[in-house]
Specification:
Helix content: over 70%
Number of helices: 11
Shape: globular
Strand content: under 5%
Radius of gyration: 18 Å
Distance between the termini: 43 Å
Order of helices and strands: HHHHEEHHHHHHH
Structural class: mainly alpha
């Protein structure tokens, strides 16, 4: 059960990454740093105003959305050609910049979001399930539901899906691709803020915690299929459950290995991932 709940949290963090790739064709290796930034913003809100981190999302998520739009305008939009390769360098530089800034203001000491219910939970058989993981899983379901409604029930969502299919064709039918990209990047950062809350409560973190996070998030997105929100959810649940089972039945030492072994096995059989399509060149 813990694997399912943790998988939901990772799906929440990975959904922004896969949305950004699908719309903008950029590989955001800074997504882990954005999750850590969300955790630090929640830490500030908690310590300065005493606001619960989950309620604090009403502040941190819009803040991250606006910051995301600014980052897209300043750093991502100028990339006109070879976006995939150049985006890796640009977003990695952003990750290093975020890490350095957080280190300057918060030092390299370990931090954690301390709330009264961080260890509280309930029993399911012989298992103890903490409320934090359950809240994180429910938050994931809620945000994913909102994303699906946005993508498949709104005019903006139709523009997003058209842009994901073919940016050049979307421009030809009158879609403002640049506006769609900026909003999509902002949404991706807002989901990172939500993931940062659960990450910050369930684990200690430092400005450099993003390195381990991004390796897992990229593995999830690649396994699920680049640009597929459904794939990100299925891959997160499957890989975290496999890791949890391995940790219990074999050894925690092998758990991380299984995480990436599943990725390799699936990609050998289906190179485009579980729900991905074979990519073709697009503008």
């Amino acid at each position: 059960m813990l694997g399912v709940l943790t998988g939901g949290v990772y799906a929440l963090m990975a959904s922004g990454l896969t949305l950004i790739f699908g719309v903008m064709r950029i590989i955001n290796v800074g997504q882990g740093a954005l999750v850590v930034l969300g955790a630090y913003l929640s830490l500030v809100v908690l310590r300065q105003w005493g606001i619960d981190p989950f309620l604090g999302l009403l502040i941190t998520a819009p803040t991250m959305f606006v910051l995301g739009v600014v980052i897209e305008l300043v750093f991502i939009r100028p990339l006109k050609t070879d976006r995939e390769a150049l985006s890796v360098l640009v977003t990695y530089a952003l990750a290093l910049g975020i890490e350095g800034t957080l280190g300057y203001f918060f030092t390299a000491n370990y931090q954690q979001l301390t709330v009264p219910y961080d260890t509280a939970g309930f029993a399911v058989g012989s298992l103890h399930v903490t409320y934090v993981y359950l809240f994180g899983f429910l938050l994931c379901l809620g945000i994913q539901a909102l994303l699906f409604l946005l993508l498949y029930r709104t005019r903006f969502g139709a523009s997003v899906r058209a842009t994901m299919l073919d940016r050049s064709a979307a421009r030809l039918i009158g879609i403002d691709v640049e506006r769609v990209s900026a909003i999509a990047f902002g949404i991706g950062m807002a989901t990172a803020a939500a993931g940062g809350v659960v990450f910050g409560i369930t684990a200690t973190f430092t400005p450099s915690s993003h390195y381990d996070l991004i390796s897992r998030l990229l593995a999830i997105v690649v396994l699920g299929g680049l640009g597929s929100l459904r794939g990100a959810i299925v891959a997160s649940l499957g890989m975290l459950v496999a890791e949890d089972i391995t940790s219990v039945l074999v050894s925690p030492t092998w758990a991380a290995f299984v995480f990436f072994a599943v990725l390799v096995v699936v990609l050998v059989v289906r190179p485009q991932g579980l729900y991905g399509v074979r990519l073709r060149e697009r503008a």
